[in-house]
Design goal:
The chain has 242 residues and is of the alpha+beta class. It is built from seven helices and twelve strands.
């Protein structure tokens, strides 16, 4: 079952197609890892570009040594000039990134894939894989929310949860991790720690994504919380703004 809470937020801002969101790849995140969260010097702030351009975005993609950046560069280069300009504007639009939220629920051993339009050019894709592994005692859930522009994936935020079931009950502490695939030069996306618990008959995992602007046009940063809660038969998943 898909619960379209995001659609309300998206429709409220869909008329303002100014700029957009997302984040660079892991290499960019690692490059900034030594800076404490929330601590930017005056020089760093002043050095931030005013906005992203087609030229600067193309340069950014060429500098990123990841398969995602290479695919995006090839797809972006094939777009007409007008769409390239719109693409880069969407990347800097803070409202679009804030609208990238969703919540869903369903049963184990069933997949979910829902595509929701933000506007004619931008879409949000929610995918959940919930399955039982060999032996039937291990359950695994993967929850991903992706933004695409003109059909090109720009960011994917994923949370994974694996837990054990014994005699019809959730047992032990689950394993959990998060993944990110981002090719947006407008923000840097920092991964938070993944919290996990296994008690009272449910397994849970949650993490926080921190979007830190790399261009002034994006405005303030955005924090998102991604969560999964599951029992022996069902699951619930949510991505929301904090």
């Amino acid at each position: 079952m898909h619960i379209p809470t995001r659609r309300l937020a998206a429709s409220a801002v869909a008329g303002t197609a100014a700029l957009a969101v997302l984040a660079p790849t892991a290499s960019a995140m690692e490059a900034n890892a030594h800076y404490p969260q929330g601590t930017q010097t005056v020089a760093q702030v002043e050095a931030k570009p005013a906005q992203l351009t087609v030229k600067s975005y193309t340069t950014y993609l060429k500098q990123q040594k990841t398969p995602e950046a290479k695919k995006t560069l090839n797809a972006f280069a094939k777009l007409p000039a007008g769409k390239q300009t719109k693409f880069v504007k969407y990347l800097q639009n803070r409202d679009i990134y804030k609208a990238l939220i969703d919540q869903a629920k369903g049963n184990l051993d069933r997949k979910l894939r829902v595509v929701d339009p933000y506007n004619p050019d931008v879409r949000f894709v929610t995918e959940v894989t919930a399955k039982t592994l060999k032996g039937k005692s291990t359950k695994q859930i993967s929850f991903t929310v992706t933004e695409t522009i003109f059909g090109i994936p720009v960011t994917s935020e994923t949370l994974n949860l694996r837990y054990q079931v014994f005699k019809g009950k959730v047992t032990g502490t689950p394993n959990a991790n998060s993944e990110i695939k981002n090719v947006n030069a407008a923000i840097t996306l920092h991964k938070g720690k993944v919290a996990r618990t296994g008690h009272t008959g449910v397994a849970t995992a949650s993490t926080v994504w921190k979007a830190v602007p790399r261009v002034k046009s994006f405005g303030k940063g955005v924090d998102k919380v991604q969560e999964i809660t599951a029992d022996t038969r069902t699951w619930k998943a949510k991505l929301g703004n904090r």
